[in-house]
Amino acid sequence: MNQTVGSEDFAMNVAMELPYLRRYARALTGSQTSGDNYAAATLEAMLEDPGLVDRTKNTRLALFGAFHAIWTSSGAPVAVEESGIAARAQDHLSRLTPNTREALLLATIEDFSTDQIGEIMGIGRSEAEELVRIAQRELAESVTGRVMVIEDEAIIAMDLQSIVSEMGHTVTGVARTRSEAVALGKAERPDLIFADIQLADNSSGIDAVNDLLAELGDVPVIFITAYPERLLTGEKAEPAFLITKPYTEEQVRLAASQAMFFASTETLQH
Questions:
Q1: Is the C-alpha dihedral spanning 22, 27, 28, 30 positive or negative?
Q2: Buried-most residue among 76, 163, 175, 221 (CB within 10 A)?
Q3: Which has the closest alpha carbon to 192: 214, 176, 211, 216?
Q4: Ordered DSSP codes for the chain
Protein backbone atom coordinates (compact mmCIF):
# COMPACT_ATOMS: atom_id res chain seq x y z
CA MET A 1 0.00 0.00 0.00
CA ASN A 2 1.28 3.49 -0.87
CA GLN A 3 1.84 5.76 2.10
CA THR A 4 1.53 9.53 2.10
CA VAL A 5 4.83 11.29 2.74
CA GLY A 6 4.84 13.85 5.59
CA SER A 7 5.08 17.52 4.70
CA GLU A 8 8.62 18.00 6.04
CA ASP A 9 9.94 14.84 4.39
CA PHE A 10 8.22 15.72 1.12
CA ALA A 11 9.68 19.23 1.13
CA MET A 12 13.15 17.83 1.78
CA ASN A 13 12.77 15.33 -1.04
CA VAL A 14 11.61 18.05 -3.42
CA ALA A 15 14.63 20.19 -2.50
CA MET A 16 16.93 17.28 -3.34
CA GLU A 17 15.31 16.78 -6.74
CA LEU A 18 15.03 20.47 -7.65
CA PRO A 19 18.50 20.79 -9.27
CA TYR A 20 17.59 17.98 -11.66
CA LEU A 21 14.20 19.50 -12.46
CA ARG A 22 16.05 22.72 -13.30
CA ARG A 23 18.46 20.79 -15.53
CA TYR A 24 15.56 19.19 -17.37
CA ALA A 25 13.62 22.46 -17.71
CA ARG A 26 16.65 24.27 -19.11
CA ALA A 27 17.37 21.54 -21.63
CA LEU A 28 13.70 21.55 -22.62
CA THR A 29 13.55 25.29 -23.22
CA GLY A 30 17.20 25.86 -24.20
CA SER A 31 17.42 28.69 -21.70
CA GLN A 32 18.36 29.11 -18.05
CA THR A 33 15.82 31.92 -17.67
CA SER A 34 12.88 30.07 -19.20
CA GLY A 35 13.77 26.78 -17.53
CA ASP A 36 14.07 28.33 -14.09
CA ASN A 37 10.80 30.21 -14.61
CA TYR A 38 9.03 26.93 -15.26
CA ALA A 39 10.63 25.25 -12.24
CA ALA A 40 9.60 28.18 -10.06
CA ALA A 41 6.07 28.12 -11.47
CA THR A 42 5.84 24.44 -10.61
CA LEU A 43 6.83 25.03 -6.99
CA GLU A 44 4.39 27.94 -6.68
CA ALA A 45 1.56 25.84 -8.11
CA MET A 46 2.34 23.02 -5.69
CA LEU A 47 2.12 25.44 -2.76
CA GLU A 48 -1.13 27.00 -3.98
CA ASP A 49 -2.76 23.67 -4.86
CA PRO A 50 -1.50 20.76 -2.72
CA GLY A 51 -3.77 18.47 -4.72
CA LEU A 52 -1.56 18.98 -7.78
CA VAL A 53 0.90 16.45 -6.37
CA ASP A 54 0.10 12.90 -5.33
CA ARG A 55 2.29 12.40 -2.25
CA THR A 56 1.76 8.66 -2.31
CA LYS A 57 3.97 8.57 -5.42
CA ASN A 58 7.73 8.69 -5.66
CA THR A 59 8.69 12.34 -5.05
CA ARG A 60 10.73 12.56 -8.26
CA LEU A 61 7.82 11.29 -10.36
CA ALA A 62 5.39 13.58 -8.56
CA LEU A 63 7.59 16.65 -9.04
CA PHE A 64 8.19 16.05 -12.75
CA GLY A 65 4.52 15.24 -13.21
CA ALA A 66 3.56 18.58 -11.63
CA PHE A 67 6.06 20.31 -13.90
CA HIS A 68 4.44 18.78 -16.96
CA ALA A 69 1.00 19.86 -15.82
CA ILE A 70 2.30 23.44 -15.81
CA TRP A 71 4.25 23.01 -19.04
CA THR A 72 1.34 21.59 -21.04
CA SER A 73 -1.16 24.10 -19.67
CA SER A 74 1.03 26.99 -20.88
CA GLY A 75 1.39 25.57 -24.36
CA ALA A 76 4.67 27.44 -25.06
CA PRO A 77 7.94 28.54 -23.44
CA VAL A 78 7.73 31.27 -20.80
CA ALA A 79 7.24 34.65 -22.47
CA VAL A 80 10.40 36.48 -21.48
CA GLU A 81 12.63 38.86 -23.38
CA GLU A 82 15.40 36.60 -24.65
CA SER A 83 18.18 37.21 -27.15
CA GLY A 84 20.86 35.23 -28.93
CA ILE A 85 20.79 31.47 -28.43
CA ALA A 86 17.77 31.60 -26.13
CA ALA A 87 15.72 33.50 -28.70
CA ARG A 88 16.63 31.03 -31.42
CA ALA A 89 15.74 28.19 -29.07
CA GLN A 90 12.22 29.50 -28.60
CA ASP A 91 11.85 29.94 -32.35
CA HIS A 92 12.92 26.35 -33.01
CA LEU A 93 10.58 24.88 -30.39
CA SER A 94 7.52 25.76 -32.46
CA ARG A 95 8.79 23.58 -35.33
CA LEU A 96 9.10 20.30 -33.43
CA THR A 97 6.56 17.51 -33.18
CA PRO A 98 4.66 18.13 -29.91
CA ASN A 99 5.84 16.20 -26.83
CA THR A 100 8.74 14.44 -28.54
CA ARG A 101 11.61 16.31 -26.92
CA GLU A 102 9.99 16.07 -23.51
CA ALA A 103 9.88 12.28 -23.79
CA LEU A 104 13.45 12.03 -25.10
CA LEU A 105 14.89 14.29 -22.41
CA LEU A 106 13.07 12.40 -19.67
CA ALA A 107 14.47 9.14 -21.01
CA THR A 108 18.01 10.18 -21.81
CA ILE A 109 18.99 13.01 -19.49
CA GLU A 110 16.85 12.11 -16.48
CA ASP A 111 16.95 8.33 -16.95
CA PHE A 112 13.22 7.69 -16.50
CA SER A 113 11.81 4.40 -17.77
CA THR A 114 9.18 4.35 -20.51
CA ASP A 115 6.49 3.56 -17.96
CA GLN A 116 7.61 6.48 -15.80
CA ILE A 117 7.63 8.84 -18.79
CA GLY A 118 4.08 7.82 -19.54
CA GLU A 119 3.08 8.48 -15.94
CA ILE A 120 4.77 11.90 -15.92
CA MET A 121 3.29 12.97 -19.25
CA GLY A 122 -0.09 11.32 -18.75
CA ILE A 123 0.22 9.00 -21.77
CA GLY A 124 0.59 5.28 -22.40
CA ARG A 125 3.87 3.40 -22.63
CA SER A 126 3.61 2.73 -26.38
CA GLU A 127 2.97 6.41 -27.08
CA ALA A 128 5.97 7.38 -24.94
CA GLU A 129 8.17 4.96 -26.88
CA GLU A 130 6.97 6.40 -30.20
CA LEU A 131 7.62 9.98 -29.06
CA VAL A 132 11.21 9.07 -28.16
CA ARG A 133 11.76 7.51 -31.59
CA ILE A 134 10.38 10.57 -33.38
CA ALA A 135 12.56 12.94 -31.35
CA GLN A 136 15.69 10.91 -32.07
CA ARG A 137 14.98 11.09 -35.79
CA GLU A 138 14.19 14.80 -35.84
CA LEU A 139 17.28 15.76 -33.87
CA ALA A 140 19.52 13.56 -36.01
CA GLU A 141 18.24 15.38 -39.08
CA SER A 142 18.83 18.86 -37.65
CA VAL A 143 22.25 20.45 -38.15
CA THR A 144 25.98 19.78 -37.98
CA GLY A 145 28.88 22.06 -37.17
CA ARG A 146 32.29 22.50 -35.53
CA VAL A 147 32.82 21.19 -32.01
CA MET A 148 35.57 22.14 -29.56
CA VAL A 149 36.43 19.93 -26.56
CA ILE A 150 37.88 21.29 -23.31
CA GLU A 151 38.88 18.19 -21.35
CA ASP A 152 42.10 17.18 -19.58
CA GLU A 153 41.39 13.43 -19.38
CA ALA A 154 42.68 11.90 -22.63
CA ILE A 155 40.32 8.93 -22.66
CA ILE A 156 37.24 11.11 -22.15
CA ALA A 157 38.45 13.61 -24.76
CA MET A 158 38.94 10.82 -27.30
CA ASP A 159 35.52 9.40 -26.49
CA LEU A 160 33.81 12.75 -26.99
CA GLN A 161 35.66 13.30 -30.26
CA SER A 162 34.58 9.88 -31.52
CA ILE A 163 30.92 10.40 -30.60
CA VAL A 164 30.53 13.85 -32.15
CA SER A 165 32.51 12.86 -35.26
CA GLU A 166 30.18 9.91 -35.83
CA MET A 167 27.30 12.37 -35.65
CA GLY A 168 28.75 14.28 -38.59
CA HIS A 169 30.34 17.15 -36.67
CA THR A 170 33.89 18.38 -37.17
CA VAL A 171 36.12 18.51 -34.07
CA THR A 172 38.28 21.66 -34.10
CA GLY A 173 40.59 20.29 -31.40
CA VAL A 174 41.03 19.43 -27.73
CA ALA A 175 42.25 21.86 -25.04
CA ARG A 176 43.54 20.63 -21.67
CA THR A 177 43.91 24.03 -19.93
CA ARG A 178 42.22 27.41 -19.82
CA SER A 179 44.92 29.08 -21.91
CA GLU A 180 44.87 26.30 -24.52
CA ALA A 181 41.11 26.61 -24.76
CA VAL A 182 41.21 30.35 -25.40
CA ALA A 183 43.94 29.95 -28.03
CA LEU A 184 42.07 27.14 -29.79
CA GLY A 185 38.78 29.02 -29.78
CA LYS A 186 40.39 32.13 -31.25
CA ALA A 187 42.17 30.10 -33.93
CA GLU A 188 39.01 28.36 -35.14
CA ARG A 189 35.61 29.47 -33.94
CA PRO A 190 33.50 26.52 -32.73
CA ASP A 191 29.74 26.17 -33.11
CA LEU A 192 29.57 24.11 -29.90
CA ILE A 193 31.83 23.64 -26.87
CA PHE A 194 32.09 20.61 -24.59
CA ALA A 195 33.79 21.65 -21.34
CA ASP A 196 34.93 19.86 -18.22
CA ILE A 197 34.93 21.87 -14.99
CA GLN A 198 38.38 21.00 -13.59
CA LEU A 199 41.30 21.20 -16.04
CA ALA A 200 44.86 19.85 -16.13
CA ASP A 201 46.68 22.80 -14.55
CA ASN A 202 43.97 23.26 -11.90
CA SER A 203 42.46 25.99 -14.02
CA SER A 204 38.70 26.23 -14.38
CA GLY A 205 36.72 25.09 -17.38
CA ILE A 206 34.07 27.62 -16.40
CA ASP A 207 36.63 30.44 -16.56
CA ALA A 208 37.86 29.14 -19.91
CA VAL A 209 34.32 29.18 -21.29
CA ASN A 210 33.69 32.68 -19.95
CA ASP A 211 36.87 33.87 -21.65
CA LEU A 212 35.78 32.29 -24.92
CA LEU A 213 32.26 33.69 -24.78
CA ALA A 214 33.68 37.15 -24.15
CA GLU A 215 35.71 36.78 -27.34
CA LEU A 216 33.28 34.84 -29.53
CA GLY A 217 29.84 35.91 -28.36
CA ASP A 218 26.97 33.41 -28.41
CA VAL A 219 28.24 29.82 -28.58
CA PRO A 220 26.32 26.94 -26.94
CA VAL A 221 28.25 25.15 -24.18
CA ILE A 222 27.73 21.67 -22.73
CA PHE A 223 29.38 21.25 -19.33
CA ILE A 224 30.44 17.79 -18.16
CA THR A 225 30.84 17.25 -14.42
CA ALA A 226 30.61 14.62 -11.72
CA TYR A 227 28.93 17.17 -9.43
CA PRO A 228 25.98 18.78 -11.26
CA GLU A 229 24.41 20.06 -8.05
CA ARG A 230 27.37 22.45 -7.66
CA LEU A 231 26.41 24.17 -10.91
CA LEU A 232 22.64 24.06 -10.39
CA THR A 233 22.23 26.19 -7.31
CA GLY A 234 20.04 28.87 -8.88
CA GLU A 235 22.27 31.55 -7.38
CA LYS A 236 24.15 32.68 -10.50
CA ALA A 237 24.42 32.18 -14.26
CA GLU A 238 24.29 28.47 -14.96
CA PRO A 239 24.48 26.21 -18.02
CA ALA A 240 21.41 25.25 -20.00
CA PHE A 241 23.14 22.03 -21.05
CA LEU A 242 24.77 19.80 -18.45
CA ILE A 243 25.93 16.16 -18.58
CA THR A 244 26.76 14.20 -15.45
CA LYS A 245 29.80 11.92 -15.26
CA PRO A 246 29.80 9.04 -15.87
CA TYR A 247 27.85 9.81 -19.02
CA THR A 248 26.47 7.59 -21.77
CA GLU A 249 26.98 7.97 -25.51
CA GLU A 250 23.25 8.62 -25.89
CA GLN A 251 23.43 11.52 -23.42
CA VAL A 252 26.30 13.11 -25.35
CA ARG A 253 24.49 12.68 -28.65
CA LEU A 254 21.28 14.17 -27.30
CA ALA A 255 22.99 17.14 -25.65
CA ALA A 256 24.98 17.90 -28.81
CA SER A 257 21.89 17.63 -31.01
CA GLN A 258 19.89 19.82 -28.64
CA ALA A 259 22.56 22.50 -28.47
CA MET A 260 23.19 22.48 -32.21
CA PHE A 261 19.47 22.55 -32.92
CA PHE A 262 18.96 25.56 -30.70
CA ALA A 263 22.01 27.45 -31.88
CA SER A 264 21.72 26.89 -35.63
CA THR A 265 23.51 30.05 -36.64
CA GLU A 266 24.63 31.03 -40.13
CA THR A 267 27.83 28.98 -39.71
CA LEU A 268 25.94 25.71 -39.27
CA GLN A 269 25.07 23.40 -42.17
CA HIS A 270 21.30 22.87 -42.41
A1: positive
A2: 175
A3: 216
A4: ---PPPHHHHHHHHHHHHHHHHHHHHHHHT-HHHHHHHHHHHHHHHHH-GGGS-TTS-HHHHHHHHHHHHHHHH-SS------HHHHHHHHHHTTSPTTHHHHHHHHHTS---HHHHHHHHT--HHHHHHHHHHHHHHHHTS-B-EEEEE-S-HHHHHHHHHHHHHTTPEEEEEESSHHHHHHHHHHS--SEEEEESB-TTS-BHHHHHHHHHHHH-S--EEEEES-GGGT-SSSS---SEEEESSP-HHHHHHHHHHHHHHH--TTSB-
Residue 130, Cβ density class (10 Å: 0-12 exposed, 13-18 middle, ≥19 buried): middle
- For residue range 57-101, what is the model confidence (pLDDT) as tens digits? 889 999 999 999 999 887 645 444 455 555 555 555 556 678 888
Asked if 104 contacts 128 with a C-beta cutoff of 8 angstroms, the reply is no
pTM recorded for the entire structure: 0.60
Buried b (16+ CB within 10 A) or exposed e, 36-55: bbbbebbbebbeeeeeebeb
pLDDT tens-digit map of 192-211: 999 998 898 888 888 999 99
